[in-house]
Amino acid sequence: MSKSIGIDLGTANTIVYVRGRGIVLREPSVVAVESRSKRVVAVGNEAKLMLGKTPGSITAMRPLKDGVIAEFDYTTQMLRHFFKKVSGNTVFSRPRVMICVPYGVTEVEKRAVQDVTLEAGAQSVGLIEEPIAAAIGSGLKVESARGSMIVDIGGGTTEVAVTSLGGIVLSTSLRTAGDELDDAIVSYIKRKYNILIGEVTAEYLKKSIGSVHPAADRGVMEVRGRNLLNGLPAIITVNSAEIREAMGEQLSHIVECIRTTLENTPPELSSDIYDNGIMLSGGGALLAGFDLLITQVTGIKAIVAKNPLDSVAVGIGHVIENDTDGINYRNRYKGL
Fold this sequence. Notes:
The chain has helices spanning 45-48, 72-87, 107-119, 130-137, 178-193, 199-209, 240-246, 248-263, 267-276, 290-298, 311-322, 329-332, and strands spanning 4-9, 13-18, 22-28, 31-34, 40-43, 58-61, 64-65, 68-69, 96-101, 124-129, 148-153, 158-164, 167-174, 195-196, 220-227, 233-239, 278-281, 302-304. It has 336 residues and is α+β, with helices and mostly antiparallel strands. The protein has 3 domains: 4-132 and 311-332, Nucleotidyltransferase, domain 5 (2-Layer Sandwich); 139-176 and 251-308, Nucleotidyltransferase, domain 5, CATH 3.30.420; 178-248, ATPase, substrate binding domain, subdomain 4 (Actin, Chain A, domain 4, Alpha-Beta Complex). The strands form 5 sheets. It has a 5-stranded mixed sheet, with helices on both faces. Helix 2 crosses helix 3 (107-119), helix 4 (130-137) packs across helix 11 and helix 5 (178-193) packs across helix 6 (199-209). The longest helix is centred in the N-terminal third of the chain and has 16 residues, at 72-87. The protein is flat and about 60 Å long.
């Protein structure tokens, strides 16, 4: 009577895939906590609306950082809330779960993911490496003998991997991703204009006019914040070129990570990647001009996945839909 579900437990968002139903839940990985009692008062969409707006008695926070669990108890309560949403609240509905982890995390971090999922109410837990899930969800033929390259840019980590024959040949996990880009925009506006903006505003700027290549610039936008010189509300206008400049250092780290991975790739697989191109997934793939930048730097065509935000969840879903018991990943692929 239990369900098999797949979870993309991201630093920014959690996406849940239920076997036979597809993606049924997309919510921010945010919890709001009462400061004194440590009681969780809101989770997901409701909690994200509170970011930067809570009174002193409530703290809105992300319980994951850089792709790994930072707050065990709050992550447990967040997952329990999501399980209730998709599976109900009876003992017979405890789900069998497959959940992703970044490539290269320690055994302790893997164990923490398993423990928190079981504590939240899972019947059993299987782990899948994020680059493999992203590659499957992006439509790459990971079981083929031909090499493929996936670049998955999430909120907390950027995963760059070369896959072949169902496994990861070479991979790098970089803890520079969407959240770091948001922080860079906040710092840039503060440094250049003496205006303080919040992380929600920075994320909105990045999504609305953010550009990583001049050919993809998207105009200008008004920004509201607090003037640090007099403490009063202020309005300024920023453009795509400024946002690109703000994100420059972090983007260079991501590009360098891709270059380094390509340099270390075996020659035969390099040839396949040149033919197939570099697949981009995750929220960062939606940054305007990111595919143009990667193509310009590497000389290899970069392709944005059809649904980059859902690639990891769709990949996990593909595995649980095609396995007889829903959590037989380790018997089918090389990996964990």
